[in-house]
Amino acid sequence: KKYIIILIALCPLFTLQAQNEQDALRYSQLTFGGTARFNALSGAFGALGGDFSTLSTNPAGIGIYRSSEFSFTPALFVSNTTSTFLGQTGEDLKYNFNLGNMGMVFAIPVNKGTDNKWRGMQFGFGINRQNNFNYRILAEGFNPDNSLLDAYLGYAEGITPSELNPFDTRLAFNTWLLDTVNSNTHYESAVPAGHVTQRKSLTSDGSQNEFILSLGANYDDRLYLGATLGFPFVRYYESSTYSERDEDGIIDDFNEFSVQDELEARGTGFNFKLGMIFRATDWFRIGAAIHTPTFYQMSEEYSTRITSNFDNGDAYED
After folding, report:
1. 209 within 8 A of 232, measured Cβ to Cβ
2. What is the pTM for the complete model shown?
3. String of b and e for 170-181 (b: at least 16 CB within 10 Å)?
4. Residue 224: helix, strand or coil by DSSP?
5. Is the distance from CB of 304 to CB of 16 less than 8 angstroms?
């Protein structure tokens, strides 16, 4: 996952769009979180149970409980990234404190008559963390060959200024990074042949959590059953800045420009899970669970800003 994130950060043509492949990857790749015990075993609780985090993976784990329990787990998350871009290495670090889980399980014993093999029922509710979106990335290098504006030229060619894309080429046109030549559909770039220092920094935060309602049962201390109704909720915020600078002063009248992107996404959803654990012997258990897809309703707000500075002192922003 770290290398995928770095690859995205190094791509100078990155454009924010709703429901793209990055969103699909971000929200579908769940990581283990929750209780300290669950983290210590990397989430390998499918047949073990008896831990609050299992209510989000195999709900039958709630059937292992024989007494009521309150669970609360504070956590520290650390993200370290390293990037190599045009022969130059960059490193960055980010950490945050968060809540791994908080919840309550009520264990309800049933009649222990000789003919009744149902040992108990359990009910649980609370929150489990399923993903952490906190990271920071920095990549920088000198590019002697080309510029992001080369791509903008390709997008803009043959299109009038009024038809340019409001999230890239029109902003570049309004800040004099692109300008028409001889006709209103042919453009030139303020950075015609590279020789610029390119830099991209990206910071994100947020998390993916799930509020759960679970019900379980224990049959003869052999078969444990469980069901969970999950209500995931997501918040993701990302801010990135891409810039190009003429540090050697060899480009006529150009100093630097930057592209600043911001994205905030929020969503809520629901899913359903069924699970079972069978204790074949005291040392061997079998666990299985079925999850429905999670159905999300997402909303996004995103924006792009371009600023430019020239050697004659002119500065523009759009």
Report:
1. yes
2. 0.81
3. bbbbbbbbbeee
4. strand
5. yes
Asked if the model's pLDDT at residue 8 lies above 80, the reply is no
- Which residues make Cβ contacts (< 8 Å) with residue 136, sequence separation at least 6? 79, 81, 92, 93, 94, 201, 202, 203, 204
Burial class (CB in 10 A: 0-12, 13-18, 19+), 285: middle
pLDDT tens-digit readout, 74-97 = 988 888 888 888 888 888 888 888
For the ranges 26-30, 203-207, 305-309, which has the lowest average pLDDT?
26-30
The model's pLDDT over 229-287, given as tens digits with 9 standing for 90+, comes to: 999 999 999 999 999 999 988 999 999 999 999 999 999 999 999 999 999 998 999 99
Report how far residue 34's alpha carbon sits from residue 217's, in angstroms, rounded to the nearest whole number: 22
Residues 200, 205, 211: CA angle, nearest 5 degrees: 155
Structure tokens at 196: 């610029």
Residue type at 1 in one-letter notation: K
- CA gap 200, 92 in Å, rounded: 12
Query: Which two tokens mark 225?
Result: 């059953």
Dig out the tokens for 271 from the structure: 């899913």
